[in-house]
């Protein structure tokens, strides 16, 4: 049967947008190369026209340059057409990628929506409220326990302001005495003579008579002399 009717050929898959874009870009590169060659040839003809005198020779160069210019215009038209096709393919590719992104986004949203619904079935507002109330009660109970454990024993609470100020004054006085007692004697200030109530030093005749008396009272060795009355007795 295959020999009579032949085998069915597999159809080739249609070209993708990427394949078509690559092919058109390759054709555009080929056309650009041809246009560059024609530009080089036109530049050479331009120099020949400048260097050739008017006449049949110059007209022949101009005719060849005109033919090359027509070819260049034809290739430029083809290049513009290829550029337009590439632009259209790029737009289609961009739209296709946008639709694919939208499909993926919708699929992700559907999956997330389904998962969220399943989670919401296990979570109830009433359960959350009950849990919050229970937590608040536990915190209050914990605070009461801490206050109870931190309660002081045998501490009078009925202390008025006068007792407090008296206690503070006494404490300040005690601290001042401890500070003065802790300072060495050579660092303490000298006492005032008026505060000690000491007798003043003798002046004038009193000091001279006192000196004579002391001099007379000393013997030859510098010891105090014994009064004669006491010797007689």
TrEMBL record:
Gene3D superfamilies: 6.10.250.1710. GO terms for biological process: late endosome to vacuole transport via multivesicular body sorting pathway; vesicle budding from membrane. Residues 99-148 form a coiled coil. Residues 1-25, 180-233 are annotated as: Disordered. It holds the Pfam family Snf7. Keywords: Coiled coil. GO terms for cellular component: multivesicular body. Belongs to the SNF7 family. This is Charged multivesicular body protein 5. It comes from Trapa incisa.
